[in-house]
Amino acid sequence: MIIKRSPVGVLSPDASGYVGVAILAVLVLSLLYASWTRIKVGRRYPPGPRRVPFLGNMHQLPPHYQHITFKEWGNKYGDVIYARFFSTPVIVLNSIDACRALMDKKGAKYSGRPPFTFHNEIIEWRNLVLMQYTEQWRRHRRWYRVAFESKAVVDTYQPLQMAEAHKLLSDLLQTPDNFILHIKKYAVSIIMGLGYGISITSMDDEFIQHVDKAVHSVFHSGGPAALLVDFFPILKYLPAWMPGAGFKTLAQQVRGSIRDMEYMPLRRVQKAMASGTAKPSIAYSILQETMKDGKLSAADEREIASALGALYAGETATTIHCFVLAMVLHPEVLNKAQAELHRVIGDSRLPDMGDRDALPYLDAVIMEVYRWCAPVPLGVPHQLLEEDDYTGYRMPRGSTVFSNIWAMTRNEQHYGDPERFDPDRFLNIHDESDFNDPRKYIFGFGRRICPGRFLADASVWLAAANIIAALDIQKARTPSGEEITPEVQFASGSVSHPKPFVCDIRPRSKKSNELILRAIRADCPT
């Protein structure tokens, strides 16, 4: 049988049919893809400042107080702004509504973190605050949720917080000029007590020194070179001796402080557990959960040390520092708060958390401190994990997302004359707006909201209430008797705290001295 073959280049009728269908399918798919591409390309980014090649908007970003620039952009372009820092897309959210719509309602998309190359890879401070949205993050978050996100659990911490508030008063009586150090000691002592079951006895304690050095280094090490390595990670491979790589030398110094801060208290707990003398603490609970046959692997120890290191990232001390500055500048507010305390609890005891609901003016003072100070003006940046759409605007995957908390505290529609310190703006409020309670936004948004916010708020309130009840805070005076009025200046950085100032702190009366001594004895009966 002779088989006939089609001449080369000529197809049989059946084959021609298949090819025709294939060509038609390719054409349809090409048209659909082109249409989708036009739609995608046609979707606009949110408005923002004009960009230039390579730099994007970096040339428009000042080295300090970027939150002010972002607010100025917001005044011109709206609440949601698009920019580029080199090749990184950036979205700035200047309103609570935008943060709620994106970070809260679309938390799965907006819960990432930028790479933070300087902190995560060079300093090697990998903790709940900075790490990516991974299973490890979820594990750390679960540990913190158990420890801090139940009011019933947080209420059990009040005896420790009260005792540390009384120690703070005693320290302020003895050496009032060192009030900033005493405030730091108060904040760290609560963390050490709850986190590790360790009691801090003096400002010379080695833990305080390491914590203060480490935290200060981390939050003040982000110079221009460090920023560049976040945008160009390849710079991390530069040798330390090369020009422009000085950030690597700095990182080596910071890394040592971080390791001490993380490991020294944890190993003290491990030693106490081995001898059977460990006190209940968060570290104790996590170690018990993690150890197998009484042993802890190096990897587990590293993870637990890192997880507990996030305890130090709170800004309780910064907020109390702001409170003291506000009282120095506004004696009428201090006097009014003192009068309320005297009217409600008298002068026979110091205030405790049970008094909070009966002291609305004091609560208004705390709310205004949160608003006026905004300790973390831009929050901690999020990263958009997948493409999104908001009111018709394209939000590109991989965008760094800033929540400009400072801009929210300066919203003139809700806070008239926002630079003025005025607790009265939080009195006699009858609606549930987030603006009427800054605690609803200063601690962040979505799945990355600060897990220790309830503890931090209680610690701030207890310190402020006890200081107001027992002490007078006034302007310092020169040797010739002239008042020294502090300037309202806040340091630039990821954390914004008041620049150093002087003031005069003294007991309100002889009875105040007696109250403090009595409280200290009651806290430590032995």
UniProtKB/TrEMBL annotation:
Name the UniProt record assigns to this protein: Cytochrome P450
Protein origin, superkingdom: Eukaryota
Molecular function GO labels: heme binding; iron ion binding; monooxygenase activity; oxidoreductase activity, acting on paired donors, with incorporation or reduction of molecular oxygen
Entry-linked Gene3D superfamilies: Cytochrome P450 (1.10.630.10)
A GO cellular component annotation in the UniProt record: membrane
Cofactor(s) needed for function: heme
Localization of this protein: Membrane
UniProt xrefs under PANTHER family: CYTOCHROME P450, P450, PUTATIVE (EUROFUNG)-RELATED-RELATED
Binding sites annotated in the UniProt record for heme: C450
Keyword Heme: yes
UniProtKB keywords: Heme, Iron, Membrane, Metal-binding, Monooxygenase, Oxidoreductase, Transmembrane, Transmembrane helix
Similarity comment text for this entry: Belongs to the cytochrome P450 family.
Pathway where it operates: Secondary metabolite biosynthesis
Membrane-crossing segments per the record: 15-34
Keyword presence, Protein transport: no
Pfam families found in the cross-reference section: p450 (PF00067)
